[in-house]
């Protein structure tokens, strides 16, 4: 065939890589071959034309790609998966100062020889997560010079292969000055640190970290906190913060030159001397430094033999020693001799070891042996005795002398840590001691109880829980100084009573614990309890005041009442609570019945919390009547609680729980509003305005603004203030507080009648009574029930009546149950009473029925 030899010749003129063009030439030759059928030649011609068209499009795309590729002003390189350079733009040839042929086909290390092994791993990891990988590196030109670049790498498909495109931005202009500065900082032999305006450490060069003994495991700022270091003046005294060179430079805005500073590391117990120069640095247009740069060098070696260094070593109680193991010669510095304080300075190691405790002699001897044989360093805390018999503690640090291959010489330091050990013991004792009374504290006694219960040799342990009766009253009336004095006095009395029979602790507030053994004496807990109660028989005194304080004690035994500390204490507390409830100044042993009582109390408190929301409360009204004639003049609202599970509950069964839990505030608010609503209902029924007395809890008084609450409730039901009487306990008398007086004055301005309930039961502060703008007193049932037969009760009633008359206050007697009581009170001048002699608490309709005969007189 005449055309058979032309295809290779024409194809040879094309690029060897242009496969498409080669195929097109072959097809063209085939089309001219007459031996091929015409219809086949037609098909081959169509295929040739299509290939040439595709080749033209591809060439256009290739030219556009290279135009864009070369137009990028930053070096751009194309890499395959192994990091081989496939292409490089013109900016890259200019930047690297190499022709394209020297780079294409080479590994990327030709541009950056400092790349670590496996550097492409994190690049591909980032790209495979759909992100661009950015890094700052240093690239190399053809002449070996380096320049910093910021490289952004991304993945793409190139000619059917997964490749990287990397764009390098030259950072020379931005980093040149910074690099020179940082290189200078790192190569300089001086320590350099930078602190901000708050003296936080923001930078430290390598020399600084080395001189300060800081490794890379912690930050410079954390390592330099003041709790780790103590700064010392040149004379060896502690340097105040105001004298710190960095502080002075910040404050004065000037260079502080060549200041000698002793730097003592508390944990390492190591003292170094530094010569420090501090330079303040100002931001643009600032008149105060925003940071300081400190440059320092270690001058410890220069000071080692100086008088100053010896003096500071003495102040730090650190001496030095050197021992020649071959000749057994021991050298001690003057401070080491002073620390040991022997009759004659020991010249050999055995002589020095003699002053140590027997167990510590063996420890030091073993450490010296290992140091000589195996080159091990050691750090020991040892106890010994000086020539005068006084004990001391020393810390001995030692090791081989550098450059001594035989390790025949050992050297180290000797530090007096006696005060530190005493301080640690003091802290240990303080951590277990109540600071006010000197007794064991809560944590200490819990530990002791745990230890005794865990000791198989202890077959019986008892806990006495002691609570002081009426302590809070004294503390509130006479103040915290009197309360603290009372607690210290009580602690001394308990100590005398218990003696060696048990351990004593202040458990919290006015509560004490005694822990004693019952193994050899089963009756010991009760006997100790009796002794404690006897110790409280005498009155307590504070300045000119004299008062009686008693104690209530609960007893729980292990194992029958519990085998864990908290269980024992909890059960002893329950017994104490029962003793306080039944008879103060007594003791009670825990019983299962008390456990049931605790459960019942918890049950009551649980239901009580939901009682108001479940509409379980209602009020009854006990008439207050004129003792002369029996005319009803007012009523006292008394709360009752009816629960489906607990039944009818009187106030004395649940008010104490409500006070303890704080539910009394919600309950008191409900009572106030319900009483006013009932008064309005009676008024609307034509019965007139009935004054109703409502008890106010002290917690209510301390809570929200009582005067505003009362004003709102009265306004809601359109009642005058004279329709409401508020009864407070004597506790308000001790609140000599402007807010208390102001609240009473605002209530009185509304016309509300203010009364002190159960007057005489508590600590009646008459001096405060005359200051409060109150209207009257209520004589407690506790005293009324004994008249006229009991002389003491008669005397109290006469005294209260006299107080009321002298202050111009009204007086109501509670608990009048007999005609004899009524006549006595009437003769005493008490005008009004209430009690079962007249009526119990009545339902609203029954109370209204009794009022139906006529109108009610309301005393304003």
Automatic annotation (TrEMBL):
InterPro entries per UniProt: Biofilm_reg_signaling (IPR052155), EAL_dom (IPR001633), EAL_sf (IPR035919), GGDEF_dom (IPR000160), Nucleotide_cyclase (IPR029787), PAC (IPR001610), PAS (IPR000014), PAS-assoc_C (IPR000700)
Domain GGDEF, chain residue ranges per copy: 459-592
Domain of life (superkingdom): Bacteria
SMART domains xrefs: EAL, GGDEF, PAC, PAS
Pfam families in the cross-refs: EAL, GGDEF, PAS_8, PAS_9
Every PAC domain range: 133-183, 378-429
Domain EAL: 601-855
CDD domains: EAL, GGDEF, PAS
Residue span, PAS domain: 61-114, 177-218
NCBIfam families reported for this sequence: GGDEF (TIGR00254), sensory_box (TIGR00229)
Protein name in the entry: EAL domain-containing protein
